[in-house]
Predict the 3D structure of the following.
Amino acid sequence: MSEKLATKLTCAIPGCKSIILRAGYAEKDSSFSLDPPAVFPALPGASNKDELNSSQFESLWRVSDKMDFDNIAFSLVLPGSGHRMLACADCEAGPVGFQPAGMEVCFIIPDRVKAE
Ligand SMILES: [Zn+2]
């Protein structure tokens, strides 16, 4: 059985605290690989600032229905890859996750959010 999200996920930007997802609304996915791969620019102002490449993801939170998010903003479809990036709907910090090209499912990058 897959592991369900046991905490809520909130925005990692100090002072924002916006709830992105509530407990139970995501499942751990340790095998997804993004095609084509993408680079996720550093998250400004957060403690984990490093740029990430999708090949570095060890596990992701899989969200099967985008209506399950509390607060999330979608970017336009990115030219080239066709993916959409996800950002905090309140402070617009991102990317905190992505929606792969041509897929309904969304993924949150655990390093880019706070679990509490
Ligand atoms: Zn935020």
Remarks:
- The chain has one domain: 9-115.
- The pocket of zinc ion is lined by residues 11, 13, 16, 18, 88, 90-91, 93 (CB under 6 Å).
- The chain is about 0% helix and 30% strand.
- The CA atoms of residues 21 and 69 lie 5 Å apart.
